[in-house]
Amino acid sequence: MSDIRITNCHTHLFHSKHVPVNYPYWALRPFKRMPLLIKGLERGMALIGQQPVAEKLSRLYRFQQETQEGSQRAILDNLRQHYPSNTRFVVLPMELSAFGYGKPVLSMRDQHDELAALRRDPDVGASVIPFATIDPRADPRATELWRAIDGLGFKGVKIYPRLGFAPDDPRLMAHVYPKMEELGLPLMTHCSRGGVQGRTLSDHWADRYTDPEAYIPVMKAFPKLRICLAHFGGQKDWAAYVNPDRVTPFADEYRDNWQIKIRKMICSGKYPGLWTDISYTLFHFEDYVPFLRLFLGGEAPDQDVDEETKLLRSRVLFGSDFYMTRQEELSERAVCFRLRNALGEDVFRQIAEENPVQWLGEV
Ligand SMILES: [Zn+2]
Question: Mean pLDDT over all residues of the chain?
Answer without folding.
Answer: 90
